[in-house]
Design a protein that fits this description.
The chain is α+β, with helices and mostly antiparallel strands and 119 residues long. It has two domains: 52 residues, no CATH class; 47 residues. The protein contains four helices and five strands; from the N terminus they run ββαβαβαβα. The protein has a three-stranded antiparallel sheet with strand order 1-2-3. Strands 4-5 form a two-stranded parallel ribbon. The radius of gyration is 25 Å and the shape is elongated. The two termini are 50 Å apart. The mean pLDDT is 78.
Length: 119
């Protein structure tokens, strides 16, 4: 059976736009009345199914390449301008990290530790 007509209460689908018109990858939910509808006793049930071929196709989709930017204000006077620049860059789709205090050396050291997962 394909479709969601036999589901009761909760149903879900994970859909992607990377596979064209056949975009559903995983779907499922509760189908408490399905067994009775097929002639069996009333049986509460839940289940899901995934398209292994569709998952495999998604595994080959290259990840989006984001550009990372670090904004390091040079002194207290530049901190206000750095906030505006950071917000503008994020609105434009950049991944932005901003240092707020300390020297430029300590800010860059902190960013390197963060990028390495040491924070």
């Amino acid at each position: 059976m394909r479709g969601l007509d036999y589901y009761t209460h909760t149903a879900f689908e994970f859909v992607t736009t990377h596979l064209g018109a056949q975009g559903t990858v995983i779907g499922g939910g509760r189908y408490d009345g399905l067994i009775a509808e097929l002639g069996g006793p009333p049986t509460p049930a839940v289940g899901w199914a995934g398209g292994i071929e569709r998952l495999a196709l998604l595994a080959t989709v290259p990840p989006a390449q984001g550009l990372a930017v670090a904004v390091v204000p040079m002194g207290e006077a530049a901190e206000s301008a750095a906030l505006g620049l950071t917000a503008a860059l994020r609105r434009a789709g950049f991944s932005v990290d901003q240092a707020f205090r300390g020297t430029m050396k300590s800010a860059w050291h902190g960013r390197a530790r963060s990028a390495a997962g040491l924070r």
